[in-house]
User: What shape does this take?
Amino acid sequence: MSFQRAARAALAGRSCFPRILVAAAVVVILAGLSLSCGSSGSSQGTVPSHIAYVTLPATGQVLLLHINGSTGAVTAGARTPPVQNISPTGLALLPSKKFLYVANSRADTISIFSVATDGTLTLSGTPTPAGSGPWAAVIDPSGKYLLVTNNYSSDNISVFSIDPNSGALTEVPGSPFFANANPTEILITPSGKFVYVTNPGIGMVTAFSFSNGVLTEVKPGSPFFSGAGASGLAVDATERFLYVANPAASNPYPYQSTTGNISGFNIDSVTGALSPTLGSPFTSTEGTGPTALTVDPNGRFVYATTTGSSYSIWCFTITSTNGQLVAVTNSPFSQSAGGLFALIDPLGNFFYIGSSTGNGIAGYSYNPSTGAPTAIANSPFSTGSAPGKMVFSE
Assistant: This one.
């Protein structure tokens, strides 16, 4: 389907509900659970609560969050002591939940926190040197490596091996790895085979294969063109499709009044190379500047978020055969949102969006059939100062 045909389908309010794509790991996680969002009152009993962490760049802190598994409500917990002039932004939690890593974008360091059984954090040792302007952080699925984008002047990615006992970081041979201009957001695929990084200034996506801590840029092809301001990334659970938010991209008729779109890519399962999906890029009838993306655990919906509350949440279904996006009925939704992050909780029940205000986290349940979001009671939730990034303890 062409961009124009997709536009007409969205304008007509048609929706397509493809077969649910569920990776084996997701099946294990979700087996036996009700998939109704906010379905805590089911006959299966109370849904377990869990915790999350969010960085607070302005105060130099990390905030512990308690997430009610039944209602989705967010309650602020303990904060780490404030540290001036470090601007913590990206963060990543070790799968063992023993250590949390925080990228300090102003200090050019990575802080290591040990995690207590109640989720509270204690700074462990001296922060580890990173590149210039460390921004986003991810840990590979094996839990052996931490990857951090350095987006000020380094134009590279630092890769560290992780000591499972002490949490200490050791930069791997060959690191940092060149990642083209101003690498910002980073994503590692569920298999751990491929890494994708956005380069907003040039509107590109840099692609790597990843093995034993070594990043190898996909050649020929990388970096791949996405669109102006290429920002947030999301991958479906089957690792077949990659989606990238382009907040500054212009659109053809009939969407010329909407700024920003989403590029869809097919992922080559052998090389990691990207090729545009049919009809890409995809956009909305209203709204502007989508920067954060997420895919629900069932691989059915893609959400894109923008700042403000007018037409701020875009929702699409994923066509299972080719990755094409089709706007759901009533999308875009005029709900409170933001462009800092978009995350769905580990059970797939609730959707959280970060905005640059003191009431920094908007929370929603979402309809598992239609994708429509519904605000959680008392949302948005205060973080005291604007958040940076957020991570769940899974």
Remarks:
- The radius of gyration is 20 Å.
- The chain has two domains: 1-44+234-387, 85-184+186-230.
- Residues 1-44 have pLDDT under 50 and may be disordered.
